[in-house]
Design brief:
The protein is built from 11 helices and 16 strands. With 391 residues, it is α+β, with helices and mostly antiparallel strands. α2 (51-67) packs parallel to α3 and α2 (51-67) crosses α4 (172-181). The longest helix is centred in the C-terminal third of the chain and has 19 residues, at 274-292. The protein starts with a strand and ends in a 10-residue tail after the last helix.
Length: 391
């Protein structure tokens, strides 16, 4: 679970930004549910204000910590600073995994890791590993075997350790690697991934065919959202090359003029609405994260969805029944009403001045302009909270 994260000199953020999921004692218990960090967090703002860049920073950390060793040793690190200024970028993330709280810090440019460090909090926050360029500057006794590893300028020590499958070094490096491996969504460290690239509906159909619980999960939400659909059946066929291809059939109830129910009628995936097919694709990923745990990172998650459907999806992450693994969901959205659902403790606004982005959580705004009885979306629409486009 993420408590907070931030970066400096990253895309449109020249100065540092920080995003916090933490919920202190001032947050009403109806919102916090007794938890120290929220399971959902929404980001709003004008176009090109930096919303997606915040999500990219998370995926950059995930990619670098878990997949950087797989790159060519001479390959540059895929990193974009503020207008490509020749300065290092800084990142940090404070999180909990397997009941242990960690902080990961990284200072890096396109050619090398300048500093990489892991802190662990038991009774107090303690540095357990620090790297300065390709030299281990500090490590605990338990991590002494890392001295045998040859570090690469363009690879994380976390992914390097995982590659060598080192043993007898405790659980901390493995915990950090597993945490970053749990990030899912439609954002990479450099771009937003389109639905057609991210989701293959045949592969998703095969997944549903092999995971009855996932299919029932998707059917329940889709049937609640589409008044015509009563069931979804996964079928298969053989191609000319003898490959099995899976596909969904959507069953509909038809009512005649006498209000008597006729037999089922069916439609293919390609006959359904964009909203229905978007749900069919994306719910497979939602189910995985909710059941296994991790962090779901989605840019414009409300695309193709009716506004009334959004709370139903967010509720999945707030219920212990549907979210037994305490997964988190961070997203951007252009929907205004979602701000009223999230409230000031779970909403960030991004804005931009002189080409530089900055962000703030709504409860950081001084004064009492945001009160429980006032509509946040109305205040935002009136330009009283910032983060609106100048049209």
């Amino acid at each position: 679970m993420i408590y907070s994260f931030g970066a400096r000199n990253y895309f449109s953020f020249k100065d540092s930004f920080e995003v916090s999921f933490e919920l202190n004692s001032k947050v009403p218990k109806a919102i916090s549910q007794g938890k120290k960090a929220s399971n959902i967090l929404g980001i709003k703002g004008a176009n090109a204000s930096g919303k997606t860049n915040i999500l990219k920073s998370l995926q950059f950390l995930s990619h670098f910590a878990t997949r950087s060793f797989k790159s060519d040793p001479n390959q540059k690190i895929t990193l974009s600073g503020f207008f490509l200024i020749d300065e290092p970028s800084d990142f940090y993330i404070d999180f909990e995994y397997n009941g242990i709280r960690y902080t990961y810090e990284l200072t890096v440019n396109q050619t090398e890791v300048i500093r990489e460090a892991i802190y662990k909090k038991v009774a107090r926050k303690t540095l357990i590993l620090e790297r300065s360029r390709n030299t281990i500057k500090m490590r605990t006794t338990e991590l002494a075997p890392l001295e045998l590893v040859t570090l690469r300028s363009n690879a994380s020590i976390i992914d390097t350790t995982a590659h060598y499958k080192m043993k007898n070094i405790g659980i901390d490096i493995s915990n950090v690697h597993s945490f970053f491996s749990s990030f899912k969504g439609n954002v990479s460290s450099s771009t937003v991934i389109s639905d057609t690239t991210l989701y293959d509906y045949n592969k998703i159909s095969e997944f549903y065919k092999n995971n009855e619980d996932a299919l029932n999960f998707a059917k329940r939400i889709i049937c609640n959202s589409d008044l015509g659909i009563k069931d979804i059946i996964i079928h298969s066929r053989q191609t000319e090359s003898d490959e099995t291809v899976y596909f969904p059939i959507f069953h509909h109830h038809i009512i005649d003029n006498a209000d008597t129910e006729k037999d089922y009628k069916w439609l293919t995936y390609w006959d359904e609405s964009d909203g229905t097919t978007a749900l069919f694709r994306r719910l497979s990923q939602y189910w995985r994260v909710l059941n296994v745990g991790g962090v779901l990172i989605m840019d414009e998650f409300d695309t193709n969805y009716h506004p009334d459907l959004l709370p139903q999806i967010l509720d999945l992450f707030l219920s212990n029944d549907s979210n037994p693994s305490n997964a988190q969901f961070i997203f951007t959205s252009h929907n205004l009403q979602i701000m009223d659902y999230l409230g000031k403790y779970r909403t960030y606004l991004t804005s931009k001045e002189n080409g530089q982005s900055f962000c703030y959580r709504l409860d950081e705004i001084p004064g009492d302009i945001i009160r429980n009885e006032r509509s946040i979306s109305a205040l935002y629409r009136d330009g009283k909270l910032g983060g609106v486009p100048k049209i």
